[in-house]
Design a protein that fits this description.
Length: about 525
């Protein structure tokens, strides 16, 4: 069985214009655990306050099988491993798994570290041995291995041998520059398999467009540990894409790295990570892209409808995706019914509602809505369609005014007018922005009637401009993540006016939270 090592939260965040909050990283961990990923690399402790906080909070994560891993380097030269603050920082995370990288390219040793080749070998051996003595699982990333192997094979092999003899649980061969081609990977990994007795891993970058191919061919040549990121996020051209590698392993190479039930979550996880990172999901991604099983109209589509297995390399449902055009109605209905069942809504035996909801979703997505990370808004829409929606309050109007003061402070004041049970209520509040002010005003207006509102917090707020060419007149999509301390949920709003879009997402968040109050504490 292949070991899956995800580095989205560390290597993936090196992608230009990608940033994840600590809350984002914790939520992604839960989704990766659901998917069945074995190891989740959380970051480099001490590199920045965000990663330090992540490891502190990750101690309380309730993961079913995934193990959190911390990333760092070998000890510095001229410093003992016991006195190296970075090494101690790795141990202080409490992470059961640690991944340390060391130089495998002789040029990097002499020109970057300004160390001798012998010193580098000692740094590798000392670090791996010491961390193993502390009872941790230790993976050694042989940085720039393939370039090092091409330049000085004997030294690159020696670095890996030292790590293996020191007790590394896997020696990971890294194509750090991403320029190695598949035939070179095959030849090199096959040779390494003959000299390294511990499990070998592969860590590929995509600079030559070969990261997935290199990972799969490395596995075929004997690697049993693979590193990558969700959607291939990473520096420059990105990392090996786990949302392509995992289905290929399970469906094409018959590997049981995750179960078939877990595999059906992979499209959802891909889109969730994209939305959380505030990046448009790539529709043409293999397996998980919205276009991955799309057939254009005409003879091809007609033939595919009669014999889909002759025109699709796998059944889209195996990866939680949908085939479009040929089986869009059937697959869409089944998918919607399954999603509704997850949300506690039974749509079986109600084809009219299913059809109406599907039409509504299609129209809303055409406008720019996205429900991938907004299950709560989807449930609210379903209940409106079925006539079981409970509004809790009726909006009469709201107003938000921004004020920049003489002292430089910027404040927003919001006034809201709502109706509850035939009575009219008005509330005003100040906030550091329109959404914050509206949230506070709404709580003042309705909080006395709904005590469960006190537990609901807005955890995250993301804005995406959908048509940049329209400038300030562009449609804006707002995603809000909320939590009551037990569960979290996402909502979406869309409008040419960012405040209106925010209000729409805010209302859905409150309605969903009040419809599903958290359980009472045990006495």
């Amino acid at each position: 069985m292949i070991t899956l090592y995800d580095t989205t939260l560390r290597d993936g965040t090196q992608r230009e214009n990608l940033s994840l909050s600590v809350e984002d990283k914790l939520r992604i961990c839960q989704r990766l655990d659901d998917l069945g990923v074995h190891y989740i690399e959380g970051g480099w402790p001490g590199a920045n306050p965000k990663d330090t906080e992540f490891f502190e909070r990750a101690r309380d994560l309730e993961l079913s099988s995934a193990v959190i891993s911390a990333f760092g380097s070998t000890r510095r030269k001229d410093v003992s491993v016991e006195q190296d603050a970075q090494i101690q920082g790795l141990l202080d995370t409490g992470a059961k798994a640690l991944c340390v990288f060391g130089k495998a390219w002789d040029i990097h040793v002499t020109e970057t570290l300004h160390a001798t080749l012998e010193e580098n070998l000692a740094m590798v051996g000392d670090t791996v041995r010491y961390l193993k003595e502390q009872g941790r699982t230790v993976f050694f990333d042989a940085e720039h291995f393939f370039d090092g192997y091409a330049n000085n094979a004997s030294y690159a092999i020696e670095v890996c041998t030292v790590a293996a003899e020191a007790g590394a649980d896997a020696v990971v061969l890294c194509d750090t520059n991403g320029g190695t081609l598949p035939h070179e990977v095959l030849r090199t990994v096959s040779a390494m398999r003959l000299v390294i007795e511990v499990p070998l891993g592969i860590h590929a970058h995509n600079d030559a467009g070969c990261a997935v191919a290199n990972s799969l061919i490395a596995i075929d040549a004997g690697c049993t540990h693979v590193q990558g990121t969700v959607n291939g996020y990473g520096e420059r051209a990105g990392n090996a894409n786990l949302t392509t590698i995992i289905p290929s392993l399970v469906l094409k190479m018959n590997d049981d790295c995750i179960t078939r039930d877990q595999l059906r979550l992979i499209t959802e996880v891909s889109h969730f990570v994209a939305e959380t990172a505030n990046i448009s999901p790539e529709p043409h991604q293999p397996y998980v892209g919205s276009s991955a099983f799309a057939h254009k109209g005409g003879i091809h589509a007609s033939a595919a409808q009669r014999l889909p297995e002759a025109y699709e390399h796998i059944d889209a449902a195996l990866v939680g995706n949908l085939a479009r055009v040929v089986v869009s109605e059937m697959a869409g209905r089944a998918s919607l019914q399954m999603k509704a069942q997850e949300l506690g809504i039974d749509l079986t035996g109600d084809p009219e509602t299913v059809g109406a909801v599907l039409d509504n979703i299609k129209e809303l997505e055409h406008q720019g809505y996205s429900f991938e990370a907004a299950d709560a808004s989807l449930e609210v829409m379903l209940r409106k369609q079925m006539g079981t929606y409970e509004p809790f309050f009726k909006l009469e109007s709201f107003r938000a005014i921004m004020e920049k003061r003489e002292d430089g402070k910027v404040m927003t004041e919001a006034t809201i007018k709502v109706h509850i049970g035939g009575h009219r209520y008005i509330a005003t509040a100040e906030g550091n922005g329109p959404v914050n002010a509206l949230d506070k005003a709404l709580r003042i207006a309705i909080g006395r009637f709904y005590p469960a509102l006190d537990a609901i917090e807005l955890m995250d707020f993301k804005v995406r401009v959908l048509d940049e060419k329209k400038g300030t007149a562009a449609v804006t999509r707002v995603l809000i993540e909320s939590s009551d301390g037990e569960k979290s949920w996402g909502t979406v709003g869309l409008s040419e006016n960012i405040i209106e879009a925010s209000w729409e997402a805010l209302v859905d968040s409150v309605v969903f939270g009040l419809s599903h109050p958290r359980s009472a504490p045990e006495e």
